[in-house]
Amino acid sequence: MSKPLVIAMPKGRIYEEAAGLMKQAGYHLSADAEESRKLILDFPEQNIQVMMAKPMDVVTYVEYGAADIGIAGKDVLLEQDRDVYEVLDLKISPCYVAVAGLPNQPLSRIAPKIATKYPKIASDYFRQQGEQIEIIPLNGSIELAPIIGLTDRIVDIVSTGRTLKENGLVEYEKITDITSRLIVNPVSYRLKGEEIDEMVNGLSKAVEVEQA
Fold first, then answer.
1. Which H helix or E strand runs over 190?
2. pTM of structure
3. Interval 10-55: pLDDT, tens
4. Could you tell me which residues come within 8 angstroms of residue 37 by beta carbon, excluding any fewer than 6 positions away?
5. 37 alpha carbon, distance to own chain's centre
6. pLDDT at 104 over 60
C-alpha cells in the first residue's frame, strides 16, 4: 500500500464539519476522534493519517510538506500568504473579519491604533482606505483593547456578533467573508495527484449537496 495521505486539521467545529463532508465523500473519519489526546490519528482502512494542529499552524505543516493536505480558514491564508495551493472552498465554519470599536468613537486623526491578531489583513485594509495605522498585536480578548482605551478599533473574526455586543462594541466595517478551505502542498500534488484529485472531487460533490 502507498504511503497514507496526511491531512492537517484543526480541532473543534472545523474538524466536526469537515469530518461530515469527508464522510459524504466516502472517507470515514470518526467524528469523536478529536476527543482523543493523540495528535496523529490513523485511519489505515482509508489510507489516511490526520494530524491535529492549531488553526494557525495548519498552513505551515502543509507548506513544508509535513502534511499533504490541510483544512484552513481563509483568514489564515490571507494573513500568512504561504506557498500552498488553495483548491476548494469547503463552505464550512462561515464567519467574517470586521472592524469594531466603541460606539460613536471617531478614529484618531494621526495613526489610529488597531488591535488585532491579523496585522497583515488589517494593514492591507486600512491602506486601501488611505489610512496610516499603528498595529497593536494581541492574541486573546482583543475586545478589551478599545474598552480600556488602548486602541481606537479592533480587527477580528465575527461569527454571531454576540461577543462584541456583550462588551459594548459595535461593528464598523466588514472586511471579508471567511470559510474553511482545502489546501494542498505543491510537491504532494505532483507525487500524489491522483489520490488528491479523487478526494477533491469527492469533497466538491459533498459541498454541492450541502449547499443545495
1. helix 186-191
2. 0.90
3. 988 899 899 999 999 999 887 566 567 888 988 888 899 999 999 9
4. none
5. 22
6. yes
Beta-bridge partner residues of 115: 136, 154
Tell the residue number behind the cell numbers 498595529, with chain if given.
135
The grid coordinates listed for 143 are 475586545
- Crossing angle (nearest 10°) for helices 13-24 and 193-211: 100
Taking 80 as the threshold, does the pLDDT of residue 99 lie above it?
Answer: yes
DSSP per-residue string spanning 23-57: HHTT----GGGGGSS-SEEEEGGGTEEEEE--HHH
Domains and CATH numbers, the chain: 5-93+179-211 (3.40.190.10), 95-177 (3.40.190.10)
pLDDT per residue as tens digits for the range 83-92: 999 999 999 9
Helix (H) or strand (E) holding 79: helix 74-80
Contact by Cβ (8 Å): 76, 131: no
Q: 102: part of which helix (H) or strand (E)? A: none
